[in-house]
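Hey, sorry to bother you again with one of my protein questions. I've been puzzling over a protein and I'd love to understand its fold better. Take your time with it, there's no hurry, and the full record follows here:
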Amino acid sequence: MKKLLLLTGLLAVLIAGCVSGPPPRDAEYWRNFVNDSPPSSDEDIEFFPQGEVDRDVELGEASDFHFKFIETMNAAPIWVMEVREDRSGYFIFNEGWIDGAIPRSRNRKVEFKLSADEYGKVRSAIINSGFLSVRNDFSGSGTTDWNIGVAAGGGTKAVKLEGAQPNEAREIVYGVYEIVVKPRYAAMVDAPVFEPEDWQHAPEYQPLR
C-alpha cells in the first residue's frame, strides 16, 4: 500500500516535473526507508517459469562480473541497481510525498565505487543465490516486474520476471541490496534527482543484454 501511494503520480511526474518538493529528510529517514521499502516480492503469488535455462554465464570465485536489476510498476522504474566490472555503479530509488492532497514522486540516483571486499561479497551473493540456473522468463499476478542480468566471461544471463519472483531471484536481489544499498543510506540525503528527458529509453532503465 505504501509503495502504491508513492507511485500513483510517478508517470506524470517523470513527464511534467514536480510542482513542489518533498519535506527535508535526514539520514535517519533514509536508513528507515531502505529497511522498510526494499524491492517488492510477494511470496504467495503463483508463477509460471517459461523458456529454457541459459547456462552461458559461469561465475567463479575470482571472476569479474556485471550485475543489473530493475524493478518497475506499470512500466515506471522504482528501483535500479547496477554494479559494473570495475566496481563502479549506482542505484536509483523512488521518493514520494504528498503535495496538498496530491501524491507526487521522483527518482534520485546514488553513484558509488565498491571496495574489493564489497565486490567479492556481491559476487558471492550472485553465486549462492542459484540465479544462474533459473529459466529466462517468469510470469505471475504480482504488481511489480523485475529484470535481472548478470554478465561474465563474454556471456550474459538476462531474466524477465513479470509479476513473479522465484526464490533465486529474491536471493540475488536482496543479497545485492544488503551490500550495495543499505550501507549507503546517508548518501541518499543529497542524491541528485534523476529525470532523463526520454526516461523510457534512458540507458539506466534498460535491462542488461
User: Anything to note?
Assistant: Confidence is low (pLDDT under 50) at residues 1-18.
